[in-house]
Write a structure and sequence with these properties.
By secondary structure, this protein is an alpha+beta fold. The protein is about 45% helix and about 15% strand. The protein has 17 helices and 17 strands. The strands form 6 sheets. A 6-stranded antiparallel β-sheet has the order 12-17-13-14-15-16. A hairpin with a 5-residue loop joins strand 1 (about 175) and strand 2. Helix 2 (about 25-45) packs antiparallel against helix 3, helix 4 runs parallel beside helix 6 (about 135-160) and helix 5 (about 110-130) runs antiparallel to helix 6. The protein is globular.
C-alpha cells in the first residue's frame, strides 16, 4: 500500500529543495520542485483527508506559477550563456578522475591507469587553450597533478607484478545464467553455475541481434563499463533514423551541454514531468510514466536502477563524455543498450523527442532513445504497453479487454482487481483507446488508439473512478468527472479526493479523472504488468 507518511515526507523534502533553489534564483528548477512537492502532498491528502497539508500544497503551486511567469518574462529579454568548450573539457577531466578513483578503490588499478592518464592529458590540453580564466587554469593544474601522481604510483605497482595478464575470451563463449535468467560470466560465481550448451549459446547469440544491431546480454562485468573519455563519445552504431515528421522539422543533433547550462540526469522521478512530442511512442511514454509513479509511491527503483553511469549512492549521473548504458529486458533477458547523448532538435530549437518538463533533466529523453534504438529508430510504428513495460521492468504482462461485449469481461470483478493490484503495488497499468473518428475524439477530449497511464483508481461515494495521464501532458477527457463537469463533482466528492475543479480548469497537464462506465465506452483494452516479487 501507498505509505501516506512517506508521501508527506517526500513532499516536504521536495519543498526544501524548491526553497533552496528559489533562494539562489534558479526559478525554473525551483518551480519544478514546488509542483512536485504539491503533487506529493495532494496525493497523500487524497488517501487521508484529515491531513493538514492542503494550504501548503496551494502555497507551493502559487509560488511555482509566480516563478514560471518571471522565468517566461526573463527568457524574452536575456539568453543564458552556455558553458565554454574549456569548461566542458574541465568537467570531462573531472569525471575521468572520479571514474579512475572508483576503479582504484575497487582494486582495479589496470582499469584506473588509462583513466588517470587521459585525465592528465585532457587537463593540460584544455589549460593550454585558455587565455584569461586563471581560476579554471588553477583547477585544471590541480586535477592534472592529482592524476599524474596517482598514475605514476600505479605504474610502479604494476612494474613489480610478475604474473601474466589474463587471456581475453569472447563474452558469448563464456556465459552462464543466474537465478533470474540474466547472463553472467561463466565461472565467475562462487557456486559455479553450469555452462550454457552450444544450442543455448546459439539461441542467445541469435536473439541478441535486433534490427541488425547487437544488444548483448547483461553481464556482471558490464558494471565495469568505461564511461569517461577525453572527448565526447559517439555511438558506434551511428544516429538513430528519424521519423517523417522529425525530418520535416529537423535542424541538428545537440548534446545536453549544448541545450542547457547545467544538465542533470534526474531532478525528481515523476510521471507528471514526462512529455511526448512527435514520436509515435505513446505506449512507451505511458509505460515510463506509470513506472515513474510507482517508483515515487513505493520507493522501488524501477527507473533509476536501469540508467548508467551511477554515483556511489547508485544514482544515475550526467556524463560529460556523453556515453550512457540503459538496462532493458529484451527477448527474455536483460540486455545492455549503449547510446550517446545527442538528441534531435528542430528549426525553432525545440527537442524533437520526448523530454522532461524541466528542460535541464535528461532521463526521459535518454531512456526513450535507448528503447527506440532497440526498436530501429525514432521512426517507430508503436507497440503496446505490456511489451514496453516488460522491457522497462521485467514484470509479467497481461492484456484485458474491457468491452462489455466480451464474454470474459466482468466489469465489477475486473475493476476491483485493477484497484487492488494498483494500490497494493502489485501491478503497473496502462489503458488504450479504440479507433474513433476525429469528431468523436474531439468531443471526448481523447486521442484515437492512444495509450494512457493509470495513476490512481478509487471506489468512493458510489462512484468508480480512474485517474489517467495523457503522455502528451495536455488534452484531457471532456465527459463525466472531467474538470468541465460541474454536476458530478460535488463539494463532498472534491473534498474526499482532494480535487479542486476550479484549479484544474486553469492548468492542463494531461491528467484527468474518468468514471469506469465512460472508460468502458471509450477504451478498448487494459495492459497490466504484474510484479513477480510479491
Amino acid at each position: 500500500m501507498v505509505d501516506v507518511i512517506e508521501l508527506c515526507e517526500d513532499g516536504y523534502r521536495l519543498a526544501i529543495q524548491a526553497v533552496d533553489l528559489d533562494k539562489i534564483g534558479s526559478r525554473e528548477a525551483a518551480a519544478f520542485f514546488y509542483i512536485e512537492a504539491a503533487e506529493a502532498l495532494i496525493k497523500a491528502l487524497s488517501y487521508d483527508p484529515s491531513l493538514d497539508v492542503k494550504l501548503k500544497a496551494e502555497q507551493y503551486i502559487r509560488r511555482a506559477e509566480e516563478l514560471r511567469a518571471l522565468e517566461a518574462q526573463a527568457s524574452k529579454q536575456t539568453t543564458v550563456p552556455l558553458k565554454s568548450s574549456q569548461q566542458n573539457g574541465a568537467e570531462r577531466a573531472e569525471f575521468l578522475i572520479k571514474q579512475a578513483l572508483n576503479e582504484d578503490e575497487r582494486g582495479r588499478i589496470d582499469d584506473a591507469l588509462p583513466l588517470y592518464t587521459d585525465a592528465a592529458e585532457l587537463c593540460m590540453k584544455t589549460s593550454n587553450s585558455l587565455l584569461d580564466d586563471d581560476n579554471l587554469k588553477k583547477k585544471l593544474h590541480s586535477l592534472a597533478k592529482q592524476a599524474i601522481e596517482r598514475a605514476e604510483a600505479i605504474k610502479g605497482i604494476l612494474s613489480k607484478k610478475s604474473s601474466p595478464s589474463r587471456p581475453i575470451t569472447h563474452a558469448m563463449q563464456n556465459l552462464s545464467l543466474n537465478s533470474k535468467g540474466d547472463a553472467t560470466p561463466g565461472g565467475s560465481t562462487a557456486d559455479r553455475r553450469p555452462q550454457l550448451t552450444a544450442r543455448e549459446l546459439e539461441v542467445l547469440k541469435h536473439t541478441s541481434y535486433i534490427n541488425s544491431k547487437l544488444f548483448p546480454p547483461w553481464l556482471d562485468s558490464d558494471l565495469k563499463e568505461r564511461f569517461a573519455y577525453p572527448d565526447y563519445y559517439s555511438d558506434k552504431d551511428g544516429r538513430l533514423p528519424l521519423s517523417k515528421k522529425q525530418k520535416e522539422r529537423f535542424s541538428k543533433w545537440l548534446r545536453p551541454t549544448e541545450l542547457c547550462d547545467n544538465p542533470e540526469m534526474i531532478y525528481a522521478i515523476s510521471s507528471f514531468s514526462i512529455k511526448q512530442t512527435i514520436v509515435s511512442d505513446c505506449s512507451f511514454l505511458a509505460s515510463l510514466a506509470i513506472s515513474a509513479a510507482y517508483e515515487r509511491n513505493f520507493k522501488k527503483s524501477l527507473i533509476t536502477s536501469i540508467i548508467y553511469p551511477q554515483n556511489r549512492a547508485g544514482k544515475p549521473v550526467i556524463n560529460p563524455s556523453g556515453k550512457y548504458m540503459i538496462k532493458l529486458r529484451i527477448n527474455g533477458i536483460s540486455r545492455k543498450v549503449i547510446v550517446d547523448d545527442t538528441l534531435p532538435v528542430g528549426k525553432n530549437g525545440e527537442l524533437l523527442c520526448s523530454y522532461s518538463n524541466n528542460r535541464n533533466e535528461m532521463w526521459v529523453s535518454l531512456i526513450e532513445k535507448a528503447y527506440l534504438k532497440v526498436m530501429g529508430g525514432y521512426d517507430f510504428p508503436g507497440s503496446n504497453s505490456s511489451i514496453d513495460l516488460h522491457a522497462l521492468t521485467g514484470w509479467i504482462p497481461e492484456r484485458m479487454s474491457i468491452k462489455r461485449t466480451d464474454p470474459a469481461f466482468n466489469e465489477s470483478m475486473h475493476f476491483d482487481r485493477l484497484m487492488t493490484g494498483l494500490r497494493r503495488g502489485d501491478c503497473l497499468i496502462t489503458m488504450a483507446t479504440g479507433p474513433m473518428s476525429e469528431s468523436d475524439a474531439d468531443r471526448a477530449g481523447l486521442v484515437s488508439t492512444h495509450a494512457y497511464a493509470l495513476l490512481d483508481i478509487r471506489k468512493i461515494q458510489g462512484h468508480r473512478l480512474l485517474q489517467l495521464k495523457n503522455p502528451w501532458s495536455h488534452l484531457r477527457w471532456k465527459g463525466k468527472f472531467s474538470e468541465l463537469d460541474s454536476t458530478n463533482w460535488t463539494p463532498e466528492l472534491q473534498r474526499a479526493l482532494n480535487y479542486d475543479r476550479k484549479s484544474a480548469l486553469q492548468f492542463d497537464n494531461g491528467v484527468f479523472w474518468i468514471n469506469w462506465e465512460s472508460a468502458m465506452q471509450f477504451f478498448d483494452v487494459v495492459y497490466m504488468n504484474w510484479n513477480t516479487w510479491f
